Automatic annotation (TrEMBL):
It comes from Streptomyces monashensis. InterPro entries: DUF2293. This is DUF2293 domain-containing protein. Pfam families: DUF2293. Residues 136-221 form the DUF2293 domain. It comes from the Bacteria.
């Protein structure tokens, strides 16, 4: 951590005391430079033309110092921790403007990359939903196509933790696909949700609506088919 006497760099102190410049007697000073133990204002220390950039944006700080022929680290003494802590930097105003422009260019590039990634993920998701729906229709050929797509879309939402996002779901395993269909039928085609809201234990609610779920699955599978 820089101190007022750090070698190899200019350090400016953010002072809470009402000190005055030992040369011009200006003050009280919010920012000062210690030279031979005496406080100097920024003008008397030939730093008055610099502007303050608070800490927080690492990229902007680094680029501002790269662009600035003259810069200084601003520190403040933390009495509780008994040490000087960095508050920001002083840099040339034009250097700060150039650094901000560079960061804006990078921000725009990141925005365009995020947009490209979002479009790519949307295409991937659309293809996966279509493949998931096709697998539902293979296993349940009498399931309405729009219902199969709705089940597939719901099961495969990114970040949802649903079966379509699991490893088995991404692999379109039969068990994962059937689990997604069963869950959809349970919530949409039976009074399962109402039973839960009435206070019925989950295992009892599932037992109660199991025949209704089985009837829908058999109807979607076609005559003579069995649910896996």
């Amino acid at each position: 951590m820089p101190t007022p006497h750090s070698p190899g760099r200019l350090v400016v102190v953010q002072s809470a005391k009402r000190k005055r410049c030992s040369v011009c007697r200006g003050g009280p000073l919010s920012l000062l430079v210690l030279e031979d133990g005496a406080p100097r204002c920024l003008d008397c220390a030939d730093l008055g033309h610099l502007v303050f950039l608070p800490r927080g944006d690492t990229a902007l700080t680094r680029r501002s110092r790269e662009e600035s022929a003259l810069s200084a680290v601003v520190v403040r003494f933390n009495r509780r921790r008994s040490r000087y802590e960095r508050q920001g930097v002083l840099v040339e105003e034009e250097a700060l403007s150039r650094a901000e422009a560079r960061c804006l260019v990078d921000a725009e590039a990141r925005r365009r990359r995020r947009a490209r990634d979002a479009r790519r993920r949307a295409v991937e998701d659309e293809r996966f939903v279509a493949a998931f729906a096709a697998e539902i229709l293979r296993l349940f050929p009498d399931c309405p196509a729009e219902r199969a797509r709705a089940v597939a879309a719901h099961a495969s939402v990114r970040g949802s933790g649903r079966v379509g996002r699991s490893a088995a779901g991404r692999a379109l395993t039969e068990g994962a696909v059937i689990s997604a269909v069963v869950a959809a039928v349970r919530h949409v085609d039976t009074p399962y949700d109402q039973l839960l809201m009435s206070g019925m234990p989950r295992y009892e609610a599932r037992r109660r609506i199991a025949p209704a779920v089985e009837a829908v699955l058999r109807a979607w599978q076609g005559a003579g088919a069995e649910v896996g």
